[in-house]
Amino acid sequence: MIAAALRRGGAESEEAVIFGDTVADVEAGAANGVFVVGVATGRTSREELAEAGAGVVLDDLTDTDLVVRLAERLTPDA
Asked: What pLDDT score does 77 carry?
C-alpha cells in the first residue's frame, strides 16, 4: 500500500514521512524506506514504537505546530 501511494504521488521514499501508532505501521514504513514518526496514542507504547524502528516517537498529535514543523523538516520539498 505504501509503495503504491508513493508511485501514485510520484514521490521517492526519501521524500515521504509516515505517522503511525502501531508496530505494523512502523515496520511497513521501514520496509518501504520511509521515515516513520511513531505516535503513542494507541495500545502501542513509546518503547515498542522506538524498538520497531520509528525515527521519532511523539506522545500524541496535539501540538500541531510541532507536527507540521517535523513533517516539513523531514520532507525535502515541503
From this structure: 63
